[in-house]
Amino acid sequence: MERERIVGALEALAALSELLGENPFKARAYANAARTLSKASRPVESWGEPGVLEALPGVGKAIAEKVREQIATGSVHKLEELRAKVPPGVRELVGVPGLGPKKAGVLWRQLGLQSAGELEYACLENRLVSLPGFGPKTQAKVLEGVRLLAGRRGKLLLPSALAAQAALAARVERAARGARWLFAGEAARLCPVVSGLEVVLEAGRAEEAAAAMGLSRAAPGLFVGESPEGAPLRLRAAAAEGLGSAAVWFASGEPFREALRAELARSGLAWTEEGLLREGRAVPAPSEEAFWRAAARSPIPPECRELPEALEADLSEVVAEGDLRGAFHVHTDWSDGGATLEEMVAAAEALGWEYLGLCDHSASAVYAHGLDPERLVAQRAAIADTQARHPGIALFAGVESDILGGGELDYSDELLAALDLVVASVHGRFGLDEEAQTTRLVRAVSHPATTMLGHPTGRLLLSREPYAYRWEEVEEALVSAGAAVELNANPHRLDVDWTRLPSLRRRGVRVAVNPDAHSVAGLADVRYGIWAARKGLARRGDILNTLDREAVGAWLRSKKARRPQSRDGGGE
DNA sequence: GCCGTTTTCGGCCCGACTGTTTTCAGTCG
Question: Is any atom of strand B within 7 angstroms of residue A406's beta carbon?
Answer without folding.
Answer: no
